[in-house]
Design brief:
Elements: H1 4-43, H2 50-67, E1 69-75, E2 80-83, H3 96-102, E3 107-111, E4 116-124, E5 130-139, H4 141-191, H5 206-255, H6 261-292, E6 301-304, H7 305-322, E7 326-331, E8 336-339, H8 341-357, E9 364-371, E10 375-382, H9 404-409, H10 416-426, E11 430-436, E12 440-448
Parallel strand pairs: 7-9
Antiparallel strand pairs: 1-2, 1-5, 3-4, 4-5, 6-8, 9-10, 10-12, 11-12
Helix pairs in contact: 1-4, 4-5, 5-6, 6-10, 7-8, 8-10
Bound molecules: adenosine-5'-diphosphate.
Adenosine-5'-diphosphate binds near residues 382, 384 and 418.
Length: about 450
């Protein structure tokens, strides 16, 4: 349509302008002939002298044949004195162009009906008095026939263009629509829950790019869904274990007769510790959910990191002491971070707590604070059991424990490092671990330094 309509409009405009030009040329030509003939008639006493008229009529006949127009000569009463086609001679005719010419106005007119052109010019005698009029009548068919021919050709041409462009547009849009349809049907399938759907990728154009982006998105969604399923299954499993223990403990007391009070006490203590365990898991889960939803509002203030680490070490000192583990703190530089002290402190506590937990008796846990121009580094090094290379990234996952049975005995929920990771991210920081099995681990937390100019002594 974009190609076809302009072509039709152009065709129409071109033919109108062409016919106007041709008509104008024809009109000027006819008008100048009328003037010349009127001149000849006026100068020669044609209207008054019969013998001259007969002589000139022969000339007029010849001119009429040569130029394919009819010549009519009128006297000043609008009576036709001579007609080269001999039809009107002797008749008085009321022709507007002749009447105009008799009143001194040379007139040309095109009668569109029948394509006839009239050109009238007044005949004047030597005294410049109007004594009659000459009317030339000509068909302008020869003007319109080639125009109609050109018009027809242009219409054929437009029709061919229409067919070709339709074919071309159909082909090209097919090239675009097919990949779009394929992505669209994949999107629809996906929205119905089929997350394993992928689209076929052909070529290297934008559609291939879109298909590729879609496939990456589908993969990520599938991964999120898988993680979610794993998470739900882990939560159920983690909660089921203490519940089963409680069930076993309760039933074994119920089934016994005459249970001594000490046994009751012992069983109740066990039940109580299982309940504590469940409470820990649920509390950790709630913290994680809040961190995930970014519901926690962080109360950012400049925090003296050295002081914070010192407090953490002091808190853990009694537990470390029980295992004969030495906790050392070293402050390489006095550093401040913009942080929520409570949240950051509990996140770092998790790491130091783990260091003590996973280090055998007699080991060393070392905590340091350092900084470069932009960031501060908190390093927690232990001489513990260490973490194998392929486990190192996984330990920040939810419910991930390297050694399922041993780690459960240590009392952890498997959520500690996940909470720490989420908290550090909320502080625009990062966390990584370097470790060797049976040699020890180093956790490095990087945080942006507090920008000077704000109140750093808060
Ligand atoms: P948990 O509550 O079980 O300690 P975490 O999320 O804190 O869970 O830690 C995940 C797992 O990472 C732990 O179960 C343990 O296997 C491993 N881990 C964490 N810190 C250390 C460490 N300092 N040394 C060795 N292993 C560690």
């Amino acid at each position: 349509m974009i190609g076809f309509f302009p072509l039709i409009i152009f065709t129409a405009a071109a033919s109108v302008s062409m016919s106007n030009t041709f008509i104008k040329i024809r009109r000027d030509n006819l008008s100048s002939h009328a003037i010349v003939i009127a001149g000849t008639v006026g100068r020669s006493n044609y209207l008054t002298d019969e013998s001259i008229r007969l002589l000139i009529d022969t000339d007029l006949d010849e001119k009429s044949r040569e130029n394919s127009y009819r010549i009519l000569v009128f006297d000043n009463m609008s009576a036709c004195v001579s007609d080269t086609s001999k039809l009107e001679t002797g008749k008085t005719l009321v022709i507007p162009e002749v009447i105009n010419a008799l009143s001194g106005i040379d007139t040309q007119n095109l009668q569109t009906f029948g394509n006839i052109m009239y050109a009238a010019s007044s005949v004047k005698n030597d005294m410049s008095q109007i004594t009659g009029a000459v009317l030339l009548v000509s068909s302008v068919d020869e003007v319109f026939t080639p125009i109609a021919d050109i018009e027809q050709r242009l219409i054929y041409f437009a029709a061919i263009i229409l067919v070709l462009t339709t074919g071309f547009v159909y082909f090209v849009s097919g090239q675009y629509i097919t990949p779009l349809r394929s992505v669209m049907s994949a999107v629809i399938k996906m929205s119905q829950g089929h997350l394993n759907i992928r689209t076929k990728i052909k070529g290297r154009d934008e559609f291939a790019e879109m298909g590729r982006a879609f496939n990456v998105m589908a993969e990520e969604l599938e991964l999120v869904e898988k993680t979610r399923e794993e998470f739900v299954s882990n939560v159920s499993h983690e909660l089921k274990t203490p519940l089963s223990s409680i069930k076993v403990l309760t039933e074994s007391i119920l089934l016994q007769i005459d249970v001594p009070p000490e046994t009751y006490m012992e069983f109740l203590l066990d039940i109580n510790s299982e309940i504590d365990r469940m409470t820990n898991i649920i509390n950790d889960l709630l913290s994680l959910v809040k961190l995930d939803r970014r519901e926690v509002t962080l109360d950012f203030k400049p925090v003296d990191i050295g002081y914070m680490l010192m407090e953490i070490c002091k808190r853990l000192f009694p537990i470390a002491h029980r295992k004969n583990i030495h906790i050392a703190f070293e402050e390489m530089k006095k550093v401040y971070a913009d942080a929520d002290e409570m949240k950051l402190s509990s996140a770092i506590s998790n790491i130091v707590d783990n260091a003590v937990k996973y280090t055998p008796e007699g080991g060393v846990v070392k905590v340091t604070a350092d900084a470069d121009n932009q960031n501060l580094f908190i390093t927690i090094t232990d001489t513990g059991v260490g973490i194998s290379e392929d486990e190192q990234q996984k330990i920040f996952g939810r419910f991930y424990r390297v050694d399922k049975t041993r780690d459960r005995q240590t009392g952890g929920t498997g959520l500690g490092l996940a909470i720490t990771h989420a908290t550090v991210l909320l502080h625009n920081g990062s966390i990584r671990v370097v470790s060797r099995e049976n040699e020890g681990s180093t956790f490095i937390v990087t945080l942006p330094l507090h920008q000077k100019g704000e109140n750093a002594n808060a």
